[in-house]
Amino acid sequence: MTMIDTSLLAQENTRSLNALKTDYDSLGERLDRQGIAIDEIKQKVSAYGVAIPSWGVGTGGTRFARFPGPGEPRGIFDKLEDCAVIQELTRATPSVSLHIPWDKAVPADLNAKARKLGLGFDAMNSNTFQDQPGQSHSYKFGSLSHTDTATRQQAIEHNLECIELGQAIGSNALTVWVGDGSNFPGQSNFTRQFERYLDSAKSIYAKLPDDWRLFTEHKIFEPAFYSTVVQDWGTNYLIAKELGDKAYCLVDLGHHAPNVNIEMIVARLVQFGKLGGFHFNDSKYGDDDLDTGSIDPYRLFLVFNELVDAELRGAPGFNPAHMLDQSHNVTDPIESLMVSAMEVQRAYAQALLVDRKALGDFQNNNDALSATTTLKAAFRTDVEPILAMARHENGGAIDPVSVYRASSYRQKVAELRPAVLNGGSGIV
Amino acid sequence: MTMIDTSLLAQENTRSLNALKTDYDSLGERLDRQGIAIDEIKQKVSAYGVAIPSWGVGTGGTRFARFPGPGEPRGIFDKLEDCAVIQELTRATPSVSLHIPWDKAVPADLNAKARKLGLGFDAMNSNTFQDQPGQSHSYKFGSLSHTDTATRQQAIEHNLECIELGQAIGSNALTVWVGDGSNFPGQSNFTRQFERYLDSAKSIYAKLPDDWRLFTEHKIFEPAFYSTVVQDWGTNYLIAKELGDKAYCLVDLGHHAPNVNIEMIVARLVQFGKLGGFHFNDSKYGDDDLDTGSIDPYRLFLVFNELVDAELRGAPGFNPAHMLDQSHNVTDPIESLMVSAMEVQRAYAQALLVDRKALGDFQNNNDALSATTTLKAAFRTDVEPILAMARHENGGAIDPVSVYRASSYRQKVAELRPAVLNGGSGIV
Amino acid sequence: MTMIDTSLLAQENTRSLNALKTDYDSLGERLDRQGIAIDEIKQKVSAYGVAIPSWGVGTGGTRFARFPGPGEPRGIFDKLEDCAVIQELTRATPSVSLHIPWDKAVPADLNAKARKLGLGFDAMNSNTFQDQPGQSHSYKFGSLSHTDTATRQQAIEHNLECIELGQAIGSNALTVWVGDGSNFPGQSNFTRQFERYLDSAKSIYAKLPDDWRLFTEHKIFEPAFYSTVVQDWGTNYLIAKELGDKAYCLVDLGHHAPNVNIEMIVARLVQFGKLGGFHFNDSKYGDDDLDTGSIDPYRLFLVFNELVDAELRGAPGFNPAHMLDQSHNVTDPIESLMVSAMEVQRAYAQALLVDRKALGDFQNNNDALSATTTLKAAFRTDVEPILAMARHENGGAIDPVSVYRASSYRQKVAELRPAVLNGGSGIV
Amino acid sequence: MTMIDTSLLAQENTRSLNALKTDYDSLGERLDRQGIAIDEIKQKVSAYGVAIPSWGVGTGGTRFARFPGPGEPRGIFDKLEDCAVIQELTRATPSVSLHIPWDKAVPADLNAKARKLGLGFDAMNSNTFQDQPGQSHSYKFGSLSHTDTATRQQAIEHNLECIELGQAIGSNALTVWVGDGSNFPGQSNFTRQFERYLDSAKSIYAKLPDDWRLFTEHKIFEPAFYSTVVQDWGTNYLIAKELGDKAYCLVDLGHHAPNVNIEMIVARLVQFGKLGGFHFNDSKYGDDDLDTGSIDPYRLFLVFNELVDAELRGAPGFNPAHMLDQSHNVTDPIESLMVSAMEVQRAYAQALLVDRKALGDFQNNNDALSATTTLKAAFRTDVEPILAMARHENGGAIDPVSVYRASSYRQKVAELRPAVLNGGSGIV
């Protein structure tokens, strides 16, 4: 079963294939001059995948408002279909990351649907930053670090439930992000609060299956506006260290203080064996959750430069999970996710082009100019022909967005799925 | 009619009056040594008022969740009652600022209720950052600066409607804040977008009654995350200048880039005759909308230092509107607003204590150390006795929060007003 | 006269010319498919030039230390020779911007030397942020805004002297940057200080020749650390407006608060006819003065996107001056300036490739995704063949850095110019 | 021997003693109502001391310029005399922290001078961020993390020399701050660079005397502008952890990214037993090195709130070193250091006033408003009478700045010490 008509796809690809071949060949020749075999790069790009968050296919919003688009998914099964569209056209997003309780469903049904759509399941995401109807204890003042034991226990059990569901659908990682923190100096005792967080995290970790990993996520602010329990990678590292070998740090590109050098944090976590993975997105101000690479593509490249370096030198325990995590407020989420998945691939492909032998020599000789121009030369190489050829050979689209638009998928689901009337939150 | 039992108030005040008198007298003596008459300061503090935003009495939230408290106001009339509590206890918040359409009601009913509660109406606030049920055109891609003429016209008319309602209830100012901007480089043409904004603003300004003022508000980001049409005071100034003499700039303390010197912006706007007023709050990261003075009380003082300086030197056209604008996510909104109103008063009182003659001399002599310690000496004076005495003499509470708690107002309204079940937004 | 041996240059170019032709042709074919004539782009790039600051050819430093390299220029005539190297190899830097008093010399000598080297003179830069030996009044507490009349007068006269020298050497612009500000709250009265600044600036402006322009430069902080008189574009705009039609705002890319959208500021200044020009560089934290495009090349492109848009639509009075302004602490300044000049050209070339008709349509239809991918498509085009071909055809180097290294210019001047022994400042 | 005439001091104190007694008594009465014994607070304040950095008594500067004042100290012995003035008048600064090689001298001479002046020696500071005349290897590209073994070895040996000198003068701590980092993406391999840093640090640590502590200092940027080896507390913690039990993290208040919650970092380091101490100062933008408490006094209080909390609960291994580290560019350094020492004491005194029992209860009950107003109540208490009384009883000045000015110390040393003519650096 495919969501996008394969004959349409074939027909669209046919139109641009000749130009693609020309561009691929001329790029190949140019790379060959540098001693790089384009097909090897293509092969690596082909094998690369980034997970899609189930919530990403719905229109996002802000505390001020949400403006839904047509054909909003009504539940996890609609979401999986939207994810399948992205995978069919880009061949870069083989798995979906679920968010509980939003995506709660009978495991067998999830498995059946995913199998049919050719999708797998990535890390599970728990939610203790919102109250759900019927919930005994409120997370208004925290969850895993709440002052009240029963509330913490409720949050722990929710995480265990996520693991249980995850096991039933083939996931092997749990991502824990909490909004716990404070809005006022003095509201929380930083030390006690973190002790409680660690205690709760240990209770979850104790039940983590042997082949699972636990990812904790840091964030400087929002929803807490004075302090956040897991505010930066320093605290995140302490957590992973306290918990044990299956605990790792997750890096979301939008969760840092202004000006912070994120690629360096990535390097540090790799060096100390604690890089768990990424939530890819982009930001200009705060946790803007913009499309990956849309604001600062060079920064994304510099992150991948660290990842490829770690991969090539075989850094111990290096096996990061890659996921998109974006809020699509003004675009069709399917389009944004396709473009973003390709941006991640692009950064990966560019980082593969870096002449690491030359770079290492320049670094050793403190030839800063040549070192940096070595990175820049890789970055400014237009690798689009490599990405497009990889997609095409994998059965995807040379130009995913234009095939998607030609397919009228959005219009079709808009007819099936009722319009969402009330999109505004009015939370200010 | 009073919302808080006056005998309870009297009884609570009686308990702390002696200590207050002692503290007031010893402070008076100390100020007298510096040549300052404490009663004159008290008189100015007494006469000072800051407006309350109607939406401030409801529990706020973030894009992740909202956790309502007991007794949430059901509409504008409940909100006015909550505002009256604040005014009765603090005697610092004589007026309320309405937000349309949230607070739309029959003007006569609004007037009657306000009169009964001893409240007035401050600036009107329009809303073109959300879609309302039944609205013809969506603000998803902007309002006053939208590419589509009909959408802009709808936004203009909404603002005119706000003026009309405002005239009926005795307001004489319109505050315009729009979320218009973009989330992606290239999404909007900055120049065309600002031209459209100016055109729309001129259409509103053209209908502004002669005795009204128009306040436009700048904000660096959120809800737009790449660019915002009115992103800073520079653009805001251009707007006020283009519109005319009744147009002024509104400064929200949380709407600036990190590290920006806000008190200097205040000084510039005063100097060029365009300071319209304030939305007071505090912030550590972005537009956190925290309680005024809760994060950086010295910054608030420095803002008031500029205001008092302008007041005393009689800066031409200087007449700023003062309003709180906060989001109360983890506190009882009534308590937060009472404390915040007092913090604003406190900064005003401290700024009144600055020895401006000495300060001016130090500035002229470039005695930086003495200049700054002159400000600090005023700031570190504990003016609480002045504020408390002013409240007491005006019929308010010496300790508003403890009287409020003693009154069980929150528990009483919680019985009358149904609990809000679904507080979560789930917009990520 | 040339600084670099022309036969060496020719020989080096010969080695890479064939590959360049291949790349140029395949890029030409690809652009042709998009309806773009590569030769037209090349022509525009050819005609483009960015000025070099005379001080840029010396090794820079920080308040902690300066680590000079070999062959540091001993004065303005050495500096001009270094600048000539850059121009000979890149053909992108036809003029030099002088800094007075550092570069003070007999005008006829300057003219003769420049003529011989094929260089012109760009904007003059005054210096009132340092004390010079024998100076009557210190700028410790300010210059154009100093509380003392005589100090202000001295600063005014210095600027007039810069104009006079500039007239003698064919310059037609004066750039004024002052460090005036304060380090403590209360140290300066913001309003009085700005009034004094405006008065002084008017005195300079009054003497500005008719065919000259005055550029004022804003900067958020450093060397003043609490407030700066010309702290942002808002204040800078007010200055240019107060002064008159020959007064314009200069934008240095590193002089803004964190997260600020600089391309939007550029658009605003263009729209209101006050964009004077640029000091190009890059930054990650503050006024880092790093090589242009080395940290965030997409931001540089977005700035040029605004400039090309303004150029193509014929924005009234649009004629910005382009200059590099960098501090080269760890590289050979000549290499950094060559690479940076080419980065500026690159951003210009990429911005020329933007399909503005399509972009405008996407903007009008609020197709944010297509709009932003339109920009991205231009940005990720590797325009190096265009730049290299333009250089080659203009008599420059296909690969300037490698020709420069092959020339041993640095080693040669190191023999002529005495080593600078004491590079450290020890100012902490 | 005293630097300030004791009879002058006595005479000045006499003038303000009566007012002080009145203020002290009325504050005592007020605190008594809260169950606080003012004399106990005074006793703790009396016992508190903060070290002075030897370099702090000279006028500081920026990369643009330095404007020396009259009577600049000519060397370490002049500096010690200036430090003695500060201690005599404030009785809050019993020790001096030396910077090598700037303060290198015969240990016996240092000891003799210090004994005579009543001063002790605090932590030693090494300098591998500048090149010294005659130095074999340059630190242009790093020191402890340099790619070259010999350069690293030179930096290690310099640190060992600092320890040796420190042992001879009674110091028992070494503070290591390096500027190592990079200015360009790719210039350094983050991982290799940090490995080298750790190796070097281990070599120093291996020679650390048993009763010494090693303090490493993190800083986000400057003098390196793209990356810094020890960029934040996370990396700093890893260093201290790798080194061993005598290694601790030093926190400089100006060394963090914008918006970062510093008091929380302090709490984390205390919790994990790695808080070594502080470099106190204040900042608005970057490492501004402004006078402590001059920009955000509440933040300083919040740091002390953590310290007092740790002190009172007996946090294991809690014994932080306190030092000022400021750059005095526009004030008399002696005045700035006196005022700053008192600001640190003030924050300490205010933090001692916090009702910790009540605060703990509010925190446990999630009464955010009461918790934060509990802190604020302590902060806004004007503790000046406590500080002044402690100074007076310890033989210091009630008003140190006015006694200092009355003493004409600056004018006297200006006669003895030759004027510094060339203050400008001209490093841009």
TrEMBL record, chains A, B, C, D:
Alphabetical list of Gene3D superfamilies matching this protein: Divalent-metal-dependent TIM barrel enzymes
Signal peptide extent: none
Molecular function in Gene Ontology: isomerase activity
Alphabetical UniProt keywords: Isomerase, Manganese, Metal-binding
InterPro entries, A to Z: L-rhamnose_isomerase, L_rhamnose_iso, Xyl_isomerase-like_sf
NCBIfam families per record: L_rham_iso_rhiz
Protein name: L-rhamnose catabolism isomerase
Keyword Isomerase on entry: yes
